[in-house]
Amino acid sequence: MSRIRGKGTGPERAVAAMLHGVGLDWEEHAGDLPGRPDFVFRDKGVTIFVDGDFWHGWRFPLWRDKLSEKWEAKIAATRARDRKNHQRLRRKGWTVLRIWEHQIRKDPDRCLERILVALGESEARAGPK
Length: 129
Fold this sequence. Notes:
This protein is mainly α.
């Protein structure tokens, strides 16, 4: 567990490279916001969480029974915390995007498009298709 990164993960670096590639500036891991979002665009009111499939429980109900009680409880608690932080941010007026590790691997262009749409910049930055 001590080797598990909370910041600077491979998926986060991939998203950062995409954002940098279209010339965007952002804040990382803002400690004053619930859940310390991975990417924050304060001027647009947008936060982005980049979640690992295992640690944040992608499709958790399908595989939770395969885990020990300890791991099942840990991931269930992470999912509950994620929901709570999402709700807290929404109540404060933030747009919250959650991008999963497998989505970045499968279709990074689609992930970038989702971000640009949330920022209201899809046409200005995405260029011709």
